[in-house]
Write a sequence for this structure.
């Protein structure tokens, strides 16, 4: 099944191969890209190189559709950040944008062709209550939420439960650290704030420093067990490597920072898989199996698991081991986050919830 | 919950491609790959769609759809059916007997969610002499019944449910899918259109009793001919009301047609400009009616806007 | 409602006008607004130049050839308040 995902991975590295695809090749690539959340970025990349017209008419409609969606999402994100800015201005609290919104406001490559869901922000822990109050005052609320989920969010994750705005129906996730409390890794959040960069066009709004941005992305992708958008998240990291890695000093700085923040292992995997699967230009020295790397056996196991988890979430890319790989990585993510005596009940509860009817809406 | 077999329409001659349970169906600009083995769905598709639009092989499909019973006990006990779009399940399961409606609603869902290269209005679109009447409609406005009547009295069907507007030139692209009819409309149209090809009625659906009408042959034949909007008409059915056509302000028409667009917010300033241009160069009306024959007469008398503007 | 008012982000707006009514699209918020004749008039006068409520009333009364009375002033105040709530207008910073 490796062959199946290859064409899409190559296209993400160089969109120039796309106009040469046959209709039946496009048929599969579009579906895989759709599921992986990367169809819009293919569209934008082709557009930037004036190659959209070189694509056959039928697949081109899908690319045009995704481009329109991506443009809408960018408008939405900019407006939403403005609304958040206004709501929180009086608190004087530094607001660090995370993930997609950060890429967009900072004008970074992964912003292009992105479809958003929630906005994630990082604020100092001491400011959490004030921030929650101000957001609620401006129209955000938790709505109906299962009490177990609410406890889970507040205690074991690192955020207030997601808040949804009544009028715009947009959701904001407020974090006070980028790794859960119970995790064994010890993260120094103050360092993140100290290194954060202000956004020129929006006062009071910051983004993480480049190395921190990559480390956060890597930790989120490789430690949190959610892979529905895995290929996209890996491509974000690959694009950031291409962008920031032009400066040779960046790579040792990244390694040093990973040491400071105790995120060595996620850094290692991010480098390894961005290079292996998406051809990111990672220098050999950075890739070398140093003290940050797992031992050979563990590395081989992780390769098998992550290569599957980072394929598009489409049936053409699944093989007999895919389900197991995802399950093992999911368990691992909780293992990293929760003590065992809490982990088992949590997993059992999640498994029970999954067997209840899926939450699909009615037709018409 | 039983569906009563409809009187009358002879089943269409079997199409080889359909029998295999894996075929490609063309509707307007879209090609759908369909996987299904449900007999009454296969019959329904053979009856409602143009045979030349159903083929065994295509290199590219816009949508990959499966209609099949769910896994587990509901496969046999009070059997159900699910609609899948390439791994996505947008609806809860429906009774197996409602396979044709779930297929039609599922295809609507595919188009509305994915076809964002068009501006899609929740509206009927019909054409005569090169001019299109767009009829936006909330449910209950009677637009499907009106559409079914008009396209059997001289108008060409472009769509009964979703008007596809090109963002480059503002023209309407034909979709020409089966027209969905509800409750009393079914009998009404059967009387109005001798020889109407209607699918078996499905009772107790979420929309009441539902049946689908095959579009007229000429509409199917001309599926590749887009046309320019000339009228925007907001229909409103009230039993017994005489047919009345009243001019509607352009500003109000623009707001209301935007409200009726599924993906207006996706297209931003471009969508606004396209719709504003269409409103500018169309005659805009509100239309109330209680009788289909009267409605046909009113529509027959519609004047297209002059070149200088409406 | 004191202070001078201005159209918030004219560059983000597109609009069309027919028979005294206006429909405005705001690319910032993504919202589309219908302006009835008085609101349409207030909008156009503010597009001409920023103004406080008094000036606005004077311009509108002149443009529509109506009496400048309390009722008009109140109606204009309500319109400007609605515009502010949906982001179409903002207070002009002092000294601008």
């Amino acid at each position: 099944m490796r062959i199946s995902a290859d064409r899409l991975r190559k296209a993400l590295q160089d969109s120039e191969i796309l106009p040469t695809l046959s209709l039946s090749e496009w048929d599969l690539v579009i579906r895989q890209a759709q599921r992986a959340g990367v169809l819009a970025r293919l569209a934008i990349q082709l557009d930037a190189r004036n190659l959209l017209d070189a694509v056959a008419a039928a697949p081109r409609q899908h690319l045009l559709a995704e481009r329109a969606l991506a443009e809408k999402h960018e408008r939405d994100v900019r407006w939403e950040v403005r609304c958040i800015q206004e709501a929180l201005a009086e608190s004087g609290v530094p607001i660090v944008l995370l993930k997609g919104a950060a890429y967009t406001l900072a004008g970074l490559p992964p912003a292009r062709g992105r479809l958003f869901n929630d906005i994630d922000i990082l604020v100092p822990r001491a400011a959490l209550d004030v921030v929650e109050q101000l957001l609620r005052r401006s129209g955000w609320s938790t709505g109906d939420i299962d009490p177990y989920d609410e406890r889970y969010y507040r205690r074991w994750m690192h955020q207030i439960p997601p808040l949804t705005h009544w009028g715009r129906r947009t959701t904001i996730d407020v974090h006070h650290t980028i790794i859960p409390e119970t995790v064994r890794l010890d993260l120094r959040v103050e360092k993140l704030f100290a290194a954060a960069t202000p956004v020129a066009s929006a006062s009071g709004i910051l983004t993480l420093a480049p190395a921190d941005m990559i480390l956060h992305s890597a930790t989120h992708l490789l430690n949190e067990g959610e892979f529905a958008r895995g290929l996209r998240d890996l491509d974000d990291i690959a694009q950031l490597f291409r962008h920031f890695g032009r400066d040779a000093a960046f790579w040792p700085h990244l390694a040093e920072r990973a040491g400071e923040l105790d995120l060595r292992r996620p850094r290692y995997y991010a480098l390894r898989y961005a290079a292996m699967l998406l051809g990111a230009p990672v220098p050999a020295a950075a890739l070398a199996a140093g003290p940050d790397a797992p031992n050979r056996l563990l590395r081989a196991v992780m390769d098998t698991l992550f290569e599957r988890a980072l394929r598009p979430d489409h049936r053409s890319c699944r093989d007999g081991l895919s389900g197991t790989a995802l399950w093992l990585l999911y368990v691992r993510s909780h293992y990293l986050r929760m003590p065992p005596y809490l982990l088992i009940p949590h997993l059992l509860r999640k498994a029970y919830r999954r067997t209840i009817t899926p939450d699909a809406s009615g037709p018409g | 919950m039983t569906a009563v077999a409809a009187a009358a329409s002879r089943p269409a001659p079997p199409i080889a491609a359909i029998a295999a349970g894996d075929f490609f169906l063309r509707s307007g600009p879209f090609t759908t790959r369909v996987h299904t083995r449900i007999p009454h769905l296969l019959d329904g598709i053979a009856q409602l769609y143009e045979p030349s639009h159903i083929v065994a092989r295509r290199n590219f499909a816009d949508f990959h759809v499966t209609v099949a019973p769910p896994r587990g006990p509901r496969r046999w006990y009070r059997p159900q059916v699910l609609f899948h779009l390439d791994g996505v399940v947008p609806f809860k399961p429906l009774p197996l007997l409602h396979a044709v409606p779930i297929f039609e609603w599922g295809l609507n869902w595919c188009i509305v969610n994915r076809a964002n290269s068009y501006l899609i209005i929740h509206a009927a679109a019909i054409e005569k002499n090169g001019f299109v009447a767009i009829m936006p409609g909330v449910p209950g406005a009677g637009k499907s019944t009106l559409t079914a009547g008009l396209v059997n009295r001289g108008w060409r069907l472009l769509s009964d449910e979703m008007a596809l507007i090109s963002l480059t030139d503002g023209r309407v692209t034909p979709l020409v899918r089966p027209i969905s009819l509800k409750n009393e409309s079914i009998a009404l149209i059967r009387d109005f259109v001798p020889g109407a090809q209607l699918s078996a009625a499905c009772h107790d659906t979420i929309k009441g009793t539902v049946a689908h009408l095959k579009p007229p042959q000429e509409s199917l034949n001309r599926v590749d001919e887009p046309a320019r909007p000339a009228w925007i008409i907001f229909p409103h059915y009230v039993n017994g009301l005489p047919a009345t056509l009243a001019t509607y302000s352009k500003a109000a028409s623009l707001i209301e047609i935007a409200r009726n667009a599924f993906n207006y917010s996706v297209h931003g300033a471009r969508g606004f400009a396209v719709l504003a241009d269409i409103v500018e160069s169309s005659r805009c009306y509100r239309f109330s009616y209680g009788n289909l024959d009267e409605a046909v007469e009113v529509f027959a008398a519609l004047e297209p806007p002059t070149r200088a503007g409406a | 409602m004191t202070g001078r008012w201005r159209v918030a982000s004219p560059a983000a707006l597109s609009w069309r006008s027919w028979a005294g009514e206006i429909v405005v699209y705001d690319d910032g918020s993504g919202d589309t607004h219908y302006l009835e004749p008085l609101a349409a008039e207030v909008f156009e006068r503010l597009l001409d130049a920023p103004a406080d409520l008094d000036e606005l009333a004077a311009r509108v009364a002149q443009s529509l050839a109506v009496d400048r009375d309390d009722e008009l002033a109140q109606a204009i105040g309500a319109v400007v308040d609605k515009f502010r709530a949906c982001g179409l207008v903002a207070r002009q910073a002092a000294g601008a």
